[in-house]
Design a protein that fits this description.
2 copies of one chain form a homodimer. The first copy, chain A, is 41% helix and 19% strand. The first copy, chain A, contains 18 helices and 18 strands.
């Protein structure tokens, strides 16, 4: 059927064409069905109704879709019914609890990448994955299919070490420390990180306060091969790009299916050419991994998956019941991180975690007494030197100091309203207050935490300071902290048990 | 945050606002998150990115959304982050395989109705329903919640008989016959039907060839109470309207979750005030219900559900391996249906099925020997008289004759290419050819089938005639029939077994 064309200037990820519903009847299509549109070229689009907006015989489409199609010589396009791609049938199979083979998984991944699947279909796919899952062989195929949607980096140096944290614990600023220690030992660790998705501050959010994080692949390779490490933003390269398209749909549903999560992490590591990977699994209340059992299951999955895709994977299950270190927020985390490298004294939680992780990577590389080796590289200043070398290679200052990074000028002290012991620090509330204060887009926004779990506090002691770059945000963050206090302070006696019967 | 407004003239079922991505960062929202937009009034909308289309500080929305909101005095609107409704958490619960209570199910149904859930969320809901299902008590709550989204008709006459077919078998034109017989006995049966969704011709599609089917509720009630029956289109009333919104999402996924299907049928019956319902379950290859076991499971579900919502439900499992009767398509089905009422001789399949169904309804009403009673009402002409009374009440002609309904003027005879017995008639191919010929929108399009299963045919015998209203459609239908022949003709000897060993 032949249509005139009218365009509108809105770009949607889904290619959509709006048609009058009577025209749809004649075409035999309904809302969300597909049609083939042909002018100079042909493409597939999803149908919506345009009653009252355009007349019969007119196809209403975005300028971006129109540019893909062009028109016949007389300015019209031909439109006809088009079948859904095969991948829709494979999504149905997963809904029915069946296994998918490599080709079927590849078809789904490629059709998501090329916008051939609608939001409705991708949502059904993720829901089916969430409920019915995948076995580890399917996840391996899924991982490779996702990696192959983007660039694959091939280093001339081997082995390629890598480090990844599942995240979910605030204040986890160890990445630049681990990378600096590992590179200081002469190993290569081209580390890419992400920005905050739901957290208060991702590694990239605080690293960009002191150097460039958007590196092109060629630059990332040359720095890694020459200096030994980078702290780059993964988003600046074309690594497993289909992942971002899926996140758009996962996010409103608040789900992250296990198969999708594992394939998402590992596909980016495959794309980075990693041969040896350490995964940090922060475990505890208020994180993604609440229990030790869940952490062990993730570790087993990751190592099984590594074996199937030919990557040496180890896991560190780490304590995450409360924030790591004192600082939350870009400038504050950067300052704490650099200060540790400078050799200043800091809460044991950050330093120990960084040394343990670097130590495991050393042992993966065949270096014995890994933690001791990591400790000596940190204490000798070798790691700090390597850190500054990397910072400079990424366009930062050679004389960078922790004191260069300062919090926002508005601050508020949250004090203890009664004496006792810190029983719990709620990660979720900590993150919430920091985000309301402006983190991570306001670089000076965030929190400094002065009391950790088990510490004795007296009435009036400062528990944490909130920093912000505007008075309005500070006020809102303060209100959030006072109405949902992140600190739970109790007397040491949790429960008094009376009437204990003699045995 | 304050925004200028720019509007576009596209109506989408989902209320959408497009914002520049940097503005989204400041608002703390991502694609598919919700925002509250406030001008004169407030409403919730879903966020998309509008980079390159509008500048920072501008909100781009449809005129229909804009009309809901208005602006502040200075022409701006205020936009802030808004939480997802609670129903999203209940969808998550169903994804986790949990039971939902009445309030939770009502929240989901109401939020779908009021466009508070996005396509992504509704897709996840239907997928979770498809995989995890509902128990019969949940389905009863679901049914009532769906019924309460629209009007509930209250007849002054009781009991209210009703009849429903699960559909899926072509040529099933028995509804006007059943209604006419039942009403001729003095019972009230206000029957609403639907148009074709994926079939070649729904009851409403052929009934509208001889009378009005779009009746307002008041007219439907008065005809039913005075004449005893109607054959109306359910879509013209506001019965369980949420159902249509769900179909929009089910359709591209090609699923119809059991819970959704049962609640969809029964909510419309609750809305019609039905007290006694007979459900026809066409069973056989190429229908929705392929096996007797599946049919029995549906029957059990429907009867259990009826018990919980206080409706007397019985089921008829009917034979559906091939089309019912000879005619497929609006005018052809209307002609066959009226001709049976006129007392002409016709294939036993239609007449028998109509009599059996009317007979069961009679027995539900306490009339013994139901089938015999139905037969006498048909043969005496009482049913025909009642039929014409209803037709007239619905604006049709009092002197309507079956010969008034004629097929399209273009026709093609499909003949047997070899002699043998009709082994199979594929419903799916029959439907496909009829739709390509133009059914149901071209009223004269369709098929007449001359040979049914088990009949002997000789080479050159006409198996069926295809009718169309245009030469082009006839040509395409003919090609479809020749490339995917709906008839499978074999010799009577299906398999020759040699070497039978003596016992």
């Amino acid at each position: 059927m032949r249509f005139n064309v009218k365009t509108f200037n809105i770009s949607t990820p889904e290619p959509q064409v709006l048609l009058e519903s009577e025209d749809c009847k004649v075409l035999g299509v309904k809302v969300n069905d597909r049609v083939m549109i042909s002018g100079e070229k042909s493409t597939i689009a999803l149908v919506s109704y345009a009653d009252g907006v355009v007349d019969r015989g007119t196809a209403y489409m975005s300028t971006s879709l129109f540019e893909k199609v062009g028109t016949n010589k007389d300015g019209t396009v031909d439109i006809m019914f088009a079948h859904a791609p095969d991948s829709v049938r494979y999504i149905r199979k997963k809904m029915d609890g069946e296994r998918l083979n490599k080709e079927q998984i590849e078809a789904i991944v490629e059709d998501i990448l090329d916008n051939r699947l609608s939001n409705i279909e991708i949502s059904a796919w993720l829901t089916a994955l969430y409920i019915n899952g995948m076995d580890i062989d399917e996840i391996a195929d899924f991982t490779m299919a996702m990696a192959n949607t983007g660039d694959i980096i091939k280093f001339s140096r081997k082995p390629v070490f890598d480090f990844h944290s599942l995240g979910g614990v605030p204040g986890n600023k160890i990445t630049p420390i681990v990378v600096s220690i590992v590179a200081a030992a002469g190993l290569m660790i081209p580390k890419t990180s992400s920005r905050a998705i739901s957290s208060a501050c991702g590694t990239s959010d605080f690293v960009e306060t002191f150097c460039d994080i958007e590196l092109e692949a060629s630059k990332l390779m040359s720095i890694s091969e020459n200096v030994g490490g980078v702290f780059a933003w993964g988003g600046s390269m074309n690594l497993a790009p289909v992942d971002d398209m899926v996140i758009r749909i996962e996010h409103p549903l608040g789900i992250n299916p296990r198969a999708q999560m594992l394939a998402s992490i590992m596909s980016k590591k495959v794309a980075m050419g990693s041969t040896h990977l350490l995964v940090d699994i922060p475990t505890g209340q208020g994180t993604k991994v609440p229990t030790l059992e869940a952490a062990k299951a993730y570790a087993r999955d990751l190592m099984d998956l590594g074996e199937r895709i030919g990557m040496h994977v180890e896991c560190a299950i780490t304590y995450a019941d409360q924030p790591i270190g004192s600082a939350i927020g870009p400038n504050l985390e950067a300052r704490e991180c650099i200060s540790i490298l400078e050799g200043n004294k800091h809460p044991a939680s950050v330093v120990e975690k960084a040394l343990e992780c670097a130590g495991i990577i050393f042992e993966m590389a065949g270096i014995s007494n890994g933690v001791a080796r990591a400790k000596s590289l940190l204490e000798s200043g070798a790691a700090h030197e390597k850190f500054l070398e990397i910072v400079q290679a990424q366009g930062g200052r050679a004389d960078l100091k922790s004191s260069d990074l300062q919090p926002g000028k508005y601050s508020y002290d949250v004090v203890a309203t009664h004496s006792g012991y810190v029983h719990t620090i709620f990660n979720k509330e900590i993150v919430n207050v920091a985000k309301i204060a402006g983190s991570p887009s306001d670089k000076g926004a965030g929190l400094l935490i002065f009391k950790k779990k088990g510490q004795r506090v007296e009435e009036g002691d400062v528990l944490m300071t909130i920093y912000a770059e505007s008075e309005a945000k500070l006020k809102r963050a303060k209100e959030a902290a006072l109405s949902n206090n992140p600190f739970d302070i109790e007397g040491m006696l949790i429960k008094r048990v009376a009437d204990i019967k003699p045995r």
